[in-house]
Amino acid sequence: MPDELHTVEVLPSQKKVTAHRGSLLLDAAAKAGMVIDTPCGGQGRCGRCLVKVTKGQAIDHESPRLTPQQRADGWVLSCTARVGGDVSFVIPAQRERELIVVETATTRTAVPVQCDWPFYPTVRQFYAELPPPSLDSNAADLDRLQAYVAEKQGLAKLAVSPTLLPRLAATLREANWRVTLTVILEGGDQQARLIDISPGHKTGPLYAAAVDIGTTNVVIELVDLRQGKALGRVSSLNKQRSCGEDVISRIIYSERGNGLETLHRLVLETINGLLQEMAAQYKFDTRDIHQVTVAGNTTMIHLFWGLPATYLRKEPYTPTATFFPEVPASQLGININPNAPVYCLPAVAAYVGGDITAGVLSSCLFKSNKLTLFLDMGTNGEIVLGNSEWMTTCACSAGPAFEGGGVRDGMRAIDGAIEEIRINSKTLEPTLEVIGGVPPQGICGSGMITGLAEMLITGVVSRSGRMNLSLPDTYPGRARIRPGEHGAEYVLAWASESGTGNDIVLTEVDIDNLIRTKAAIYAGIAVMARNLGIPLDSIEEVLIGGAFGKHINIEAAIQIGLLPDLPWDKYRFLGNTSVWGAYNVLFSKYARQQVEESARKMTYFELIADASFMDELTAAAFLPHTNADLFPSVKEMLK
Amino acid sequence: MPVEIPVEKWAGKVNEVKLGGNGRKSIVIGGETTLPFLKIDGAMPHRPAIAVEVDDVMPADWSPHLIAAWGDALEDPAVWAKKAAEYGADIIALTLDSAHPERGNTGAAEAKKTVEKVLAAVDLPVIIIGPDVAEKDNEVLIAASSVGRGQRLALGNCVDKNYRSVAAACIADGHVAIAKTPIDINLAKQLNILICDIGLAPDAILMDPTTGGLGYGIEYTYSVMERLRLAALIGDKMTSMPMICNVGEESWRQKEARATSGVPATWGDHQERALAWEGITAVSLLNSGADIVVLQHPRTIALIKDAISKLMA
Amino acid sequence: MALSGIEIYKHLPKTNCKKCGFPTCLAFAMKVSQKAIAITACTDLSETARAALEAASRPPIRLITIGGDSRKVEVGNEVVMFRHEKTFYHPPGLMIKLKDTAPLEATLKTVDEVANLVIDRVGLKLSLDGFAIQNESKDAATFARCVEAVKAKADLPLVLMSPDPAAMEAALEKSARSRPLIYAATKDNWEKMAELAKKHSCPLVASEPASLDELAALTQKLNQAGVEDLVLDPGPQGFSSSLNTLTQLRRLALKKSFRPLGYPIITFPAETTGSPEEEVLLAGQQIAKYAGIIVLSRFSPATAYPLLTMRLNMYTDPQKPIQMSPGIYPIGAPKPSSPLCVTTNFSLTYFSVATELEASGFPSWLLVCDTEGLSVLTAWAAGKFDAEKIAKSVKAFNVEASISHRSIIIPGRVAVLRGELEEELQGWKIMVGPPEAMEIGSYLKRYWTN
After folding, report:
1. Could you give the C-alpha distances from C87 to A18, B280, C55, C80, C84, in angstroms and in order?
2. Is residue A111 part of a domain?
3. Which of residues 197-216 of C touch B (CB under 8 A)?
4. Contact call for C260 and B217, based on CB within 8 A
5. Is residue C276 packed enough to be buried (19+ CB in 10 Å), middle (13-18) or exposed (0-12)?
6. Does one domain contain both A249 and A328?
7. Shortest CA gap A401–chain C (Å)
8. What is the pLDDT of residues A496-539, one digit of tens each?
9. What are A380-384's contacts with CB under 8 Å, separation 24+?
10. Which residue among A385, A470, A472, A563 is least enclosed by CB atoms within 10 Å?
């Protein structure tokens, strides 16, 4: 009975209109003067047009956008749900809809995982009131100190950093024998080394820094070791970036002239600068930082130490060291308490570094009973597959595309970056979300992923990533697809709307670059899993780390074939797992023991040495993949 | 003791592709539900076909043995095609080489004339191959397409750069596209997907996986073809297209088949060696899944025709 | 059945002791599963684990050696149906048949020719493997004499062909030290032939044309008689039956682990073909489809060469990425003044650059460097495509002789190599091309002015 008329009430405005049975709720709402935004063009793809039926009947089919619970609560997609009788529905405020979408598909919050480490820092600080010397008791100052800590702190043996000796006598006397001692536990709980002695009773935070040296970004988490609390974070671009975007370029730079010195200096400048900024923000002296832990890829750590990096890139790819001794800050040139111990998390191989062992630590992968895939997607893509029993790891040279490199209008995920793109399949017009809500200046990794996924699904690009220039002019957005200098391109934002005064585009060359990057990561996963004899669908959990992991749209990442087509609830985002790993090591000495054990246990797999890698790479260099059966959910959508 | 032979049960089937018809002789190739000639697993309903290469210009650098075998026929594609039919060709593979920018740079008008002439001279199904420069291929293939409308020609090469227009011509005029890719299973499958995505029916596509001649990459072609065929038998629709191999040209252009002087004595008699070169290449690729082999020498046509009969027996 | 790395790992001690030379037990397990190292390299393996793993890794087709220390043929020990699944390991022996009734002088001339046939192909030396001598005379002394003479002329691996155990014995007396293959044990003479095989420690052909059932029955009898080194002769095979029968035999061995037929196969393509031309085609088929020893009825270098090439091609490792041979390639018909581009030898990289150059309207020179089959970025990252390598290739392939200018266009993705390359190639202009092959045409239009 298609001609049957029903009353439709649109809330919260309470407007009532009549609509034919079978008409879309979306159209009924429009009749009532409520235009619901449909970024995907009313295809039931994006989930932005959710409404909640409060009374009566709407006919809708299942959608991956809605959980069973949401459906039970009356939520439907207004672009696919139809009038089935008299009906009332609520159009939620924009914000509420956003939240729902975020919960169903693209959980973005980065919550550090708690592995329940006992709070057990190795740097301790305590107040001491020493008995002053007298003729009856005229032992040396140092002996006095040692006797005191042996008695009061149970530290049978106290070594002293030699640089403290010249000022020891004066400090004790000027402070009237009331001092705050900072020590680091060494080789068991009864042995320690004195690294600072200050007058009076210090009660404020005991500062330490967890550092993640990324190829692109350096991140520092400030930690209070007295409370065992993370206080705050600062980050900036790695100043080495002027010497090359990726690790290989850096290594090559290090091989020439003063290259190594320059890179060493630049990373220290970056770290010292950040520490200073941190100190200014939290109002303390950088000399009050008493411990530093550092996670970074093997190249970054070599350059941080000033070690030659050249052998990392030449066959057979050998690092100088994978385990690094703990050394005083002064030796490396970090401007904090010169005696503060600096510890670098251990690496596995030339291309799997301390940032990855940090990830294994902070994600709790090392104790998981589930078969887990851990991905760190930065300039290099590293992969760990395993569980509490065994772990394998490999690295793929993904390239810097997701961090903005090699893409014409690419940029980091900062204000002005387009981070989400929807393309209306009826008009081919895009809807953009820009970080900071400002006019767009460029596009960041997550924007590229959603943009490419949308272009694929709306037919703007073919499965090989070529623009379809033969689309008819009847689409209002057709003019956005045009020939360009770097192959054909799609205009995301016209010059008049952009924050740069130029058109912001994605070109075929950009897309080739993105496809190569995503193919490298997928091929790495596929080759490693196959070598172990593990089918991808037996993976029980996928953990995504890396700075980029905060802003990834899982669905879109699957659509372009970057991530395996697993149920979305198997994916978890952990944010910067590298800095959290370094933080864990500050927090507990047991975490440090664990990261060393994990590093020894991880089996490194050399992708380039695998004969099928290039083949796998070619297969993955298609959207979503040459073998679409590996991506059933996407295959369905492309029909 | 009775030996139990393991039999593979395949779920997939190679597409059946028809060439010719509408007044012209027709031929169907493909349709296998087993690996080549392997009767124990399934059926091979159609025998692989022999196509014979006919060029629209006198070949410039052919082996003297080829030139001697064809004689004056090389000067006129229509005569050449008739002679090829007499020697046992199932299909004529007409190459519009004169359209190559460096070998005459002829265009649509000449292509039309040549195709008309050859279509009139023989009643066999016809394959039209462009000069292997994507832009020129477009021009002459579209011209050939309209001349041969309804006669279900096979048009090649349909490649990454020109597939949209070649496939569109095939859709409009009822022809079959020859999808050619560099020797790689993934690229072959990708091109099939792209062509199907714009609407050409899967049974109007042949795959040319690029032939490496004996000693010049035959092992790559051989294995890519085996992989494509196995994928088809497993049920992958996007690798289920029959395959065509350009055996003659890839054998005869090698110095082992072409060079008349300055070769080591250990290479033996020239003609015997050259024929073996083309023959072994053909048999090997038939065994790895070729549904059409394009040959050049009359003696090879006879030998391979006989070998195919024996393999089908 | 091949075990996966994880399945093997489960049997290992999991101590990561490194005594096997690998950093972890899992790394070792993965190498074992690729058959890159024997399981016995783990010295701490429990007895039960060892038994389980060894059973799984026993070769399904027995490796048979024919010939003495100077020259030998090893066949069998294949593990896959299709070469892309792993590789074909042991190329079939190609033998020339001789008859003891032919004039000895003519026979020895052929022997000499075969023994001296060495074809040089891309740096490899190709030659035939030996002779199958047939006791056509039915006379033991003649047979022995012929075998002795052939062996004296050239000590190559032999197949001795006679149904008569007495003749075989006589011939073996003259040649047993070079482990000839005895052809053949049949259901009529197998006991005596088995005795000879054991006595002289020679491999033996089990010949039974009736059926695979009866062939299996024969090999089992020979096994029971104590002969393990066998080669199968399932009788004369034409194009179709050869393909079908040999495929079945390989399947039985690999998929069913059927040991009675887990041996290499000998074929005689001339027996079912009507002409030498046809014999060569069937022999070509049998190289790819599962023959272990192929006996050719006549020697002709003109057919030996293509067959040897076919064998070389089929038995190369297919798991390596397809590579172009390094060198300088003309694209179109370039002149000395045409552009010169450089790229790597991964075939798909080459193809995409060559295709774009061809479409660009600029005939060009393309210099292909040996990067072990890796693409530009991968090779660069692995240090296999650097300034030194490019400069070396320019010199090695005498590029300066082909071109009149001194400009070279490097891929845009390795723009960083420019400086070093300027040092390596003094007097050259280093041009940085576009990052994607797709842009080569527009790049050349814009920047190429020679």
Report:
1. 72, 21, 21, 7, 6
2. no
3. 212-213, 216
4. no
5. middle
6. yes
7. 13
8. 999 888 899 999 989 998 998 999 999 999 999 998 889 999 99
9. A380/A215, A380/A246, A380/A247, A380/A297, A380/A351, A381/A517, A381/A520, A381/A521, A381/A524, A382/A297, A382/A351, A382/A352, A382/A355, A382/A356, A383/A521, A383/A524, A383/A525, A383/A528, A384/A356, A384/A359, A384/A360, A384/A602
10. A472
pLDDT of res. A551: 63
Taking an 8 Å cut-off on Cβ atoms, the answer to whether B307 and C239 are in contact is yes
Say yes or no to pLDDT of A112 above 80: no
Residues A391, A536, single domain; the answer is yes
Is a pLDDT exceeding 80 seen at residue B132? yes
C347 located within any domain: yes
Query: Both C50 and C70 in a single domain?
Result: no
The terminus-to-terminus CA distance of chain A in angstroms comes to: 30
In the structure encoding, which two tokens stand for residue C100, read together?
């003891």
Domain that holds residue A93: 5-104
Is A500 in the same domain as A428?
A: yes
Residues A391 and A525 in one domain: yes
Q: Does A603 touch chain C (CB under 8 A)?
A: yes
Q: Measuring CA to CA, which residue among B289, C321, B158 is closest to residue A619?
A: C321
Burial of B109 (0-12, 13-18, 19+ CB in 10 A): exposed
ipTM summary value: 0.97
Task: Classify residue C321: in a domain, yes or no.
Answer: no
Chain-chain contact of B194 with A470 (C-beta, under 8 angstroms) = no
Of residues C3, C374, C438, nearest to A508 (C-beta): C438
- Residue A334 in domain: yes
Q: How many domains does chain A have?
A: 5
Before A308, cis peptide (omega within 30)? no
Report d(CA A523, CA A618) in Å as an integer: 9
Query: Would you mind telling me the total number of residues written for chain B in this entry?
Result: 313
CB spacing of A252 vs C375 below 8 angstroms: no
Q: Which residue of A has its CA nearest to B231?
A: A627
Distance CA B218, CA B254 (A): 12
Looking at the DSSP bridge assignments, the partners of residue A434 are A418
Q: What pLDDT band is residue A97 in, cutting at 50, 70 and 90?
A: very low
Provide the pLDDT for residue A279.
Answer: 93
Amino acid identity at A136: D
Residue-level pLDDT at A108: 29
Order of strands, edge to edge, in the sheet holding A489-493? Answer: A481-482, A489-493, A504-507
B106, B98 in Cβ contact below 8 A?
yes
Blockwise average pLDDT, block size 10, chain C, 450 residues: 81 89 88 81 88 78 91 94 93 98 96 94 87 97 97 95 97 94 97 97 97 96 96 96 97 92 97 96 98 97 96 89 86 92 91 85 93 86 87 94 94 84 91 86 84
The pLDDT of residue A337 is 97
| Nearest residue, CB atoms, C30 vs list A315, A531, A612 | A531
Cα separation, C92 vs A322, whole angstroms:
48
Averaged pLDDT for residues B59-63: 87
Binary contact (B184, C322; C-beta < 8 A):
yes
Distance CA B216, CA C310 (A): 10
Do A22 and A71 lie in one domain? The reply is yes
Give the residue numbers spanning the domain of C10: 5-57
